[in-house]
Amino acid sequence: xxxxxxxxxxxxxxxxxxxxxxxxxxxxxxxxxxxxxxxxxxxxxxxxxxxxxxxxxxxxxxxxxxxxxxxxxxxxxxxxxxxxxxxxxxxxxxxxxxxxxxxxxxxxxxxxxxxxxxxxxxxxxxxxxxxxxxxxxxxxxxxxxxxxxxxxxxxxxxxxxxxxxxxxxxxxxxxxxxxxxxxxxxxxxxxxxxxxxxxxxxxxxxxxxxxxxxxxxxxxxxxxxxxxxxxxxxxxxxxxxxxxxxxxxxxxxxxxxxxxxxxxxx
Amino acid sequence: xxxxxxxxxxxxxxxxxxxxxxxxxxxxxxxxxxxxxxxxxxxxxxxxxxxxxxxxxxxxxxxxxxxxxxxxxxxxxxxxxxxxxxxxxxxxxxxxxxxxxxxxxxxxxxxxxxxxxxxxxxxxxxxxxxxxxxxxxxxxxxxxxxxxxxxxxxxxxxxxxxxxxxxxxxxxxxxxxxxxxxxxxxxxxxxxxxxxxxxxxxxxxxxxxxxxxxxxxxxxxxxxxxxxxxxxxxxxxxxxxxxxxxxxxxxxxxxxxxxxxxxxxxxxxxxxxxxxxxxxxxxxxxxxxxxxxxxxxxxxxxxxxxxxxxxxxxxxxxxxxxxxxxxx
Amino acid sequence: xxxxxxxxxxxxxxxxxxxxxxxxxxxxxxxxxxxxxxxxxxxxxxxxxxxxxxxxxxxxxxxxxxxxxxxxxxxxxxxxxxxxxxxxxxxxxxxxxxxxxxxxxxxxxxxxxxxxxxxxxxxxxxxxxxxxxxxxxxxxxxxxxxxxxxxxxxxxxxxxxxxxxxxxxxxxxxxxxxxxxxxxxxxxxxxxxxxxxxxxxxxxxxxxxxxxxxxxxxxxxxxxxxxxxxxxxxxxxxxxxxxxxxxxxxxxxxxxxxxxx
Lengths: 266, 328, 261
Known about the structure:
The complex is a heterotrimer of chains A (266), B (328) and C (261).
Chain A lengths: L2 H40 L3 H13 L2 H23 L7 H40 L2 H7 L4 H38 L5 H11 L2 H9 L1 H17 L5 H32 L3
Chain B lengths: L1 H27 L9 E8 L11 E4 L2 E11 L6 E8 L9 H17 L2 E7 L6 E7 L20 E2 L6 H18 L2 H10 L4 H6 L1 H24 L5 H31 L7 H40 L3 H4 L10
Parallel strand pairs in B: 1-7, 2-6
Antiparallel strand pairs in B: 1-4, 2-3, 3-4, 5-6
Helix pairs in contact in B: 3-6, 3-7, 4-7, 6-8, 7-8
Chain C lengths: L1 H4 L3 E10 L2 E11 L4 E6 L5 H8 L7 E6 L2 E2 L5 H8 L2 E4 L11 H12 L4 H14 L15 H13 L5 E5 L7 H18 L2 E5 L3 H7 L2 E6 L4 E6 L1 H7 L3 H7 L3 H10 L1
Parallel strand pairs in C: 3-8, 3-9, 6-7, 7-8
Antiparallel strand pairs in C: 1-2, 1-4, 4-5, 9-10
Helix pairs in contact in C: 4-5, 4-6, 5-6, 9-10, 10-11
């Protein structure tokens, strides 16, 4: 036998697990996608959906508002330091408005939700697996992937854009608080300046980012839960993995989305 | 279950709040556009529209009335075509949308005849520009024909006038042109010819008109230097100053010659005709000196401007370190 | 008629394992209709793994498993789920869905697979809960139940679709002897009243002798079945010392001496 071929085979054997790591998430996504038609036919359990809407929307709102408000304030203070050198503090309104609506709003909400929902999903699914609840679902003839993922996914797809809108508003409000109190810009002037710098397309494109982010957080969370090792440490590691991979995926997706938007001129 | 119903209420509040906020933001950010009555106005610029973008403001004598909706290059004539949307609510007019529109059309047509034109203006230190509608042309001036292809159906056309920047360049160009056209050679030739022809020479209307022209030119130059403190490029300035200096040297040379020749000429003092001539020459000398002083002043002003520009180029648009709130 | 002769479960030449490591190989056995069948073996011999293969959760390395004549191994995904709905499984800890109440847990298969009205579903759930002595606990959340109750609730859920075949994974593990005995009686009742076939994975000898019609015993060393028959008969007459030792609770000493010898 050709030693070169043998070596190649050895190498390919070593890389097979790696390749499987790459294909398994795809398989997971495929399983879920395959269930979409039956979801559309049969719907999902309303109670589960309501529970996750409550968890990912209502309960996450205060922390999202707080963090976005603070981020808006931080940006305004930093903008003030720079722009006051030119005597152009009013442009803080532009800076905060644009950055919050375009980038920081959707991104901060995604980060908060990664910690809030993504890790919870992973831990929940991981525990269900540990507790044989997943097996139980399976032997009832119910597909655990779709049964567990769809309510979470729907809730996230609904609540993330709403949270992002709230987050945008809170960020602008934070900037305005600093603008009005520390820079003594009249609120009306700040408001006019903010409206001046933004337009509907920017706002919509910014808020639209939350949809792929929601998808990524949910899928990463559930995937890490389903693939967590069958012990309590495994569940913990699954949650960590969910958070880390979500953040990574969100940032990568944001890069792609920004490039995509740049093609259409935004 | 009470717990269950509070959860539902919160959920409802969350979703409703989100939707209300969404609609409110859309509304504030200009979804109102859909409901506003607009007219399309088109123009073409032959100069660079650097600093003008889609969304740039359109103003009527400083009042924002709309925004630029499209900027395109016309391939056949290389003109830059700019489409603007003018919001009619800025023009107080009773009646429904149709009434508003026809009122605006009438207003627009009559104002065009009154000399209304559009021009690119700087919006602040950022280099951003806006389009200003104002009365740059003299009333009753014939309207230039719109370039082929515009206005589109339903749109209005407003001719563009060159921006102030171009005006300054043009004024200086004219001034220099006039200075260079002064017939210095002819003057010196005439002086050289003979002293006996002096009185005749001095009476020559050509010199008078030359001096008058020099005066005029230098006034133009002064005007130029005053307006120039708004926009100018250093390189161009240097070139201009080179030209100016050259011209000035010629004038100096001429004056020296004049003085020398006057001195050298051994004029019999008893001749009254000659005294007259001498007086006349002194007078004209004064006038020339005056002209030169003015030229010198202009030169000083230009030098000062050049210096200050090289120190602080942004003062072209911002003015001299004036702190001001820019709010449109 | 034919139903009587056809075994409920038939395992043919089954080899199972994880990621290349063979746990059990060349298994062959059948479970007859109406039988209480126990899978026995020491810890780590692969009892639970075997069960998970039989109920279709894992794919075997080779061999075939027929449930009521249909191969759960070769079935496509859709058909496999259809086969899975024919039997009920009760997991070790009950595996109740922690986000749902006990009644909702039991109602889930009914909601998913029947066209019953909500009222009919509620009645069925109540009947199933009464069957496992949990009447009135429908509104409890799984976290509020004791271990035995959770197992019985899991059994009620497994019974929801009236399956003729039931699997139990360590039903008496973690239960006190009295609760364990109650559970045994419940299983007997199920078999007697509904003619159910019951497959139990366990190592509780008391239960085995009380209820099992037939057992198979798995062995870690040989990775195969070392005994197949009625428990009392095996205890007394098995030629294999290991089997006798296990069934008489002499296991530790005997396997210890065997390992040395």
